[in-house]
Write a structure and sequence with these properties.
The complex is a heterodimer. Chain A is an alpha/beta fold. Chain A is 41% helix and 21% strand. Chain B is elongated and about 65 Å long. Classes of the chains: A alpha/beta, B alpha/beta.
Chain lengths: 131, 221
């Protein structure tokens, strides 16, 4: 079983957490308690309520042990900062994050970071549908 | 100098006005367009840009490439970090200073290589602590990553240095008395200056002998 930390309990985060928690060890981090509670019974993992910019929260989520970290809050800048810090400090192998601005995505790109841009992704999928 | 300030909150605004008074060129960026409209009318000599400074386009509009210093003073710590990173990586700014809103976020500034984080909350807390005088000994300033401290020591009645002149007092090596505050007087001491109870002594000391210095001045720790 892999140990996976997800930061951001929005639509994508929730779906990802529920699916992954069927087979993997998942921890969900969010600063909004209601969002965490909305995960429901389908989620089979741990919830951490706190500020992801605070190292104590990341430590409580067991970030050191994580095989993969996902940063998918609606805040590009938070995703970038936390993503880069966990990559540098804890040398997590797979760090994936949502960044919706393309210039920022390119500027902050570094080895081992998977930066996903929702618009690019959608455009790619839609373009493929016409071939 | 040309200075770009991101964030027209209390700190950003006061700083912008102050720098303008000192005849610097100032550009102030803020996300809040209404606030920017008001500021543009009020502060005619400051360039006001309405926009999100975490976007490179906005920084470019502020001519950040020509700036001598960037100050990132938004109320969002992640934004301050990103703004400093962009200014450095994309525009090669020489000096970037950022406000830290929540001291818990300070480690992130360090990992993200923001060279000059200013932890405003901790600074204010320290000033309040100093003003309230909770203790006889107070570190006023620490320099060079904490290796050198400037401390303030209140001299009690039973201190071993009371009524002695400085040349009679032996202080640990690598420490020096800088000033004596007595009531409203500020004394820069010489060898014949005497220390009295109730004096506040300002001393500079290397961190490894700080305890010895305090012991020499108040007799205990």
């Amino acid at each position: 079983m892999k140990y996976i930390v997800i930061v951001g309990c929005g639509k994508i985060g929730k779906e990802l957490a529920v699916q992954l928690s069927k087979t993997e060890n998942v921890v969900m981090v969010d600063k909004d308690l209601e969002a965490l509670n909305s995960l429901g019974d389908d989620f089979n993992g741990k919830k951490i309520w706190g500020d992801a910019l605070d190292m104590n929260t990341l430590n409580a989520a067991g970030i050191k042990e994580a095989n993969s970290v996902f940063l998918i809050t609606g805040n590009d800048n938070l995703n970038l900062v936390v993503g880069k810090v966990v990559k540098r400090k804890y040398e997590i192998k797979e760090v994936s994050l949502l960044v919706n601005d393309d210039v920022k995505r390119q500027t902050f790109q570094e080895e081992g970071l998977t930066i996903v841009n929702r618009t690019n992704l959608m455009v790619g999928v839609l373009k493929r549908s016409i071939t | 100098m040309y200075i770009v300030i991101a964030g027209a909150g209390r700190v950003g605004l006061v700083l912008a006005k102050k720098l303008k008074e000192d005849k610097h060129q100032v550009c102030l960026i803020d996300k809040n367009s209404k606030l920017c409209d008001t500021l543009a009318k009020e502060l005619k000599k400051i360039l006001i840009i309405s926009g999100d400074a975490t976007y490179p386009d906005i920084l470019k509009e502020a001519k950040i490439g020509k700036a001598d210093v960037l100050v990132s003073a938004t109320s969002c710590d992640e934004d301050n970090i990103i703004i400093c990173n962009l200014a450095k990586d994309l525009f090669g700014i020489r000096r970037a200073v950022a406000i830290v809103n929540d001291p818990k976020h300070l480690p992130l500034y360090k990992y993200m290589e923001v060279d000059n984080p200013v932890d405003s909350t901790s600074i204010i807390a320290r000033i309040v602590e100093e003003e309230a005088s909770f203790t006889d000994v107070m570190t006023l300033l620490s320099i060079k990553k904490g290796r050198l401290s400037i401390v303030r020591v209140d001299i009690p009645q039973d201190s071993p240095v009371v009524n002695k002149s400085l040349q009679e007092i032996s202080l640990p090596p690598n420490s020096v008395l800088v000033s004596i505050l007595r009531g409203v007087d500020i004394i820069v001491p010489s060898g014949t200056t005497r220390i009295f109870p109730g004096d506040e002594v300002i001393a500079a000391t290397l961190i490894d002998v700080e305890k010895d210095l305090i012991k020499a001045l108040i007799g205990k720790i």
